[in-house]
Design brief:
Layout (H helix, E strand, L loop, with lengths): L4 H9 L1 H6 L7 E2 L5 E3 L4 H16 L16 H20 L34
Antiparallel strand pairs: 1-2
Length: about 130
C-alpha cells in the first residue's frame, strides 16, 4: 500500500480539512495521530468525535459493532490495510443514495501491548 491507512482514513473522513479549520487551542494532529498542538492526538480526537456522534444519535442507532484481535505479520497487515482501503475508497467515491440515511463509520487498527494476548480485552489471563 503506497500510503499509510491512517492518512487514507483521515482524508476519506474529512479530518484533514477539519484540522485546517481548528483554532490554536483545539486538538490538531498529523495523519498518524501524533500531536502537533494541544494535548491529545488526532486519533483521540477521532475517537471522541465518534463517541459524541454515537451518544447524540442514541444507543439504538448502532447498525453493527465488530471488535477483532489479530496476530499478523507485515505482509498480512498490509493486505488487510489494502483491502480495507479498497472498500472504503469504493464507498467514499460513490454518490449519496437519494433515499439513504446518514451513517458514521470508524475503522481503527492499533497495536496491542506485547504481553496482551489477542482477545483478552487488556487483561492477561490468570492460571
Amino acid at each position: 500500500m503506497d500510503r499509510d491507512l491512517g492518512r487514507h482514513l483521515h482524508q476519506r473522513l474529512g479530518v484533514v480539512e477539519d484540522d485546517l479549520d481548528a483554532g490554536p487551542d483545539e486538538v490538531v494532529g498529523d495523519a498518524l495521530g501524533r500531536p502537533t498542538g494541544g494535548e491529545a492526538s488526532s486519533a483521540e480526537a477521532m475517537l471522541e468525535a465518534f463517541r459524541a456522534e454515537f451518544e447524540e444519535a442514541g444507543p439504538d442507532s448502532a447498525r453493527d459493532f465488530t471488535r477483532l484481535a489479530l496476530t499478523l505479520n507485515k505482509a498480512s497487515l498490509e493486505e488487510l490495510e489494502t483491502r480495507l482501503g479498497v472498500v472504503l475508497d469504493e464507498f467514499a467515491d460513490r454518490p449519496h443514495d437519494p433515499d439513504g440515511e446518514p451513517l458514521g463509520l470508524l475503522v481503527a487498527i492499533h497495536r496491542l501491548k506485547p504481553d496482551q494476548p489477542p482477545g483478552s480485552g487488556g487483561v492477561a489471563p490468570t492460571s
